[in-house]
Structure formats: structure tokens, C-alpha cells
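EI: anyone free to look at a 479-residue chain?
SC: sure, send it
EI:
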Amino acid sequence: MKNYQTILKNFFGFDAFRGLQEEIIQRTLKNQHSLVIMPTGSGKSLTYQIPALNFDGLTVVISPLIALMKDQVDGLQKKSIDAAYINSSLNKEEREKRYKLVAEGHYRLLYVTPERFRKSEFVEILKKRTISLLAVDEAHCISEWGHDFRPDYTRLKEFRDLMSNPTTIALTATATPRVQDDIVIQLGLTPKEVKIFHEGIERENLFLECHEVWGEEEKLNHILEIIQQNPGNGIVYFVLIKDLNRMAELLRKKKVRYLKYHGDLGGEERKKIQDRFMGGENNLVLATNAFGMGIDKENIRYVTHAQIPSSLESYYQEIGRAGRDGRHSVCTLLYDEQDLNIQLQFIEWNNPAAGYYDRLYRLIYDQSERVNAEGIEFVREQMTYKNRNDFRLETALGMLDRYGVTEGDLDSKNLTIISELSEELSSQESRDIKLRLEQEKLYQMVLYTKEEICRKAFIHRYFGLEYQEKCGVCDLDSG
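SC: here you go
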């Protein structure tokens, strides 16, 4: 067995471990399972990458984030570590080449999405390798109580069985006690088998504040004040692209320079903006939550939410991009009660009723040729009677795919039913539980804005953690 401290120095360039890293690595090297909860940017990936270089077999890393996979693999390859990813971004030739290399014994680390396990050819190739370690990144996606539930993650017990139940490490930045319990269950493990390493969510250098505002003028004035008082790089988050564009116009009139990043931009344009932000100084980016994955810029001085997020989990992850250099950074939420209507509308779109899923299933099944020939506008017309402000269809199509009910897509004109409608989608009781869960998460977010003692303490309570209140760490207890 190699010396893991030597690996830390020679491959990653660090002289010492941080926090709980070394203890987690020692446990993994003893082939014991762990659940790791660490703040964003605290070095979670090292806790499986170093053991991967110690084991003789393959380490499989399951992640839902295709962009981050490429970034991590590129970084490992620059360190002369034999790593690769296999996901939908590869063409058939590239994918088959990597399948062949996996089968021949290449790669120490292999990054895949959970959906990859739907492919029988991938499963057969994995069976030819000894899997020493399974690392599950963004592990909160396992749980329907998490803030980014992915149904394929619920098959992780099955995946572990296919790989002969390797040593497993699950990692996330945010997990309530309920989500922690569910992660262990979904992995097919027992609480006695899994040690939870929780570094807490405390970031002493982050100053949390919330201002109640009314209308875009008050919002604009607060943003201008934040920019003036916190020179350096910053992110201002919006929920809706149209509101982002409106604020951009107001800032332009005030001679404020900014970048814009949102899902309506093309892939090349988004990459160009991200590169400019990462490589520059004193950059302000106006963004939707599409911006952030892969952003590991140390000196972000402020993160402002111009509209209320959907949950404390997503809010905490986004403010976690501030102050990674340990210096004072400001995290501001501008709460306009009118913005609640946006999130309530999103909750409605995110939770189609069981009857909606049934109608969509029947439409695709009965009229497959026409559905693929005429595309999404035909389907929308059949499902929502030409109401262009109803976005349940996008959610429902995504969920049919995530639950393995369909394969292909309308853009490629090959959307096909491949299994029965799953119980999770056909049961109204299940749909109602999910709806109430999202409503409760939003309610907790509203309570956060009303907190009158200490917002950091509120966040800690939400995640089931104790917190020693300290003067000066947020706007409420600093006098």
C-alpha cells in the first residue's frame, strides 16, 4: 500500500491535510463506508481521489454534473493521474473507445452519471473490472427529501450489487438529518456500517444579511450599495431571466459593468463568460442558478440573491461560492414578498399531478410517430391547450426520462416509451407528498428572512447542527 501522505504531496502539491480529510481517507483505506458532509470548496474530492491511487482496482465516481466531471478529469490528467469520464457529451466513437480502455484495465478513476447504468454494455464492461471504491458525489440527490432529487440515484443499491458491493463513500455539502438517513438506506447499508463525517456548515468569514425591499428601484439601490462597499468579484443571482435582463439595463444606465450568464445563452457564450469571470478581477456577473457549477474562484467578495431561492439547501450552496480565500465576504438576500409568487409558480410547474403524467404517457404511447414528427409544440398543445405559460410539460418529460419510462428525446425525434409508468409518477399520494415538501422548503426560506436573532444559527438548526452564536457573524447579532 502506498503512503497516502506521499500521494498528497507528490500528486496534489499539499504538505498537510485539512479538517477531517485524513481521518476519512484512513477509514476508506480500511475498506469501511463513510458519509462525508463538508462545505463547498473544502476538499471533499481528495477523500476519494487519494484512496483511488492507493487501491489496485478501479474507483467509480458517480456524479450528476457533466461539466464538473470534465473539469475534475482534466485536473487529474494534468497531474498524470489516469482518469476518464463517460457521459452523454461523448459521441459514439469516443464512448466505445473508452469502453474498450475500461475493459482492458485502463483508468484509476472513472466518472459517470447514474443514468449510465441504464446501458447494458456499460454494465457488462464494469463486470470485467475489480471495483475497489465507489464514490457518490452530490449524494443529496439520492433522497427525495433532498433539494435536487434524481430518481436514478435511488438505484445505487442495485449499482453497488453489480459492482460486488465495493467500499463506498458518499459526499455532499448539504444534508438535513432526514436526508442523511435516506442516503444510508438508499445505498443499501445500515447506520452501523456507515460513519458520518460532518464538518458543519460554518464559514466564519461569511457575513449574512437580509433586506426586505419593495420593487426594483429599492433592489437596484441595494445592489449598487453592495458593489460600492465590497470591491472585488461578485455574483448577483436572479430566478427569472427577464428580471435579470431588466436589472442589467438599469445597471447599464448607472455605468456599472457586468457579465450576464443564463440558460438561454448558447454553450460557447456561457463558456466564454465563465472563463472571463474566472480569469478576471473586479467582475460582476448577473446570473441565474445555471451559473456556479465548476466556479471555484477564491476571491468572490459578495454573493447577492436579488430574488428569494427555493430552499435553504440551494441558498447555502450558492453563498458557499463566496470567500473561499478565507477573507471577509458578504452574502445578501434581497427579499421582496412579490417574488414569492415566482417560486410558488415554479413549485406548481415542478409538480404535475398524477393525471397529467398519465395523459402524457398515453399521448406518447398512442401517437408516437406524430409526437416525434411535430415535436414539443404539438405535445404542449395537446397537454396544455396552447397555454405557453404552463411549463409542466418540461418537468414531466424530464421525469419520464429520469425514471426510465422513456428514452430518446423530441429534439432528436426518437422519443420512445420503454416501460410502464412508474408508481412514483402515477400515484397522486406520492405527487402530493413531493408538493408539500417543496412548499415546506420555501416556507423555511421565508422564515429565514424573518429571523430576528442569528441567521447562521437558523441555518445550523435547519441542518440539524448545534451552533455557538458569536457576535459579528451576521447582521442580526453584530449590534
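EI: The two ends are 54 Å apart (CA to CA).
SC: 👍
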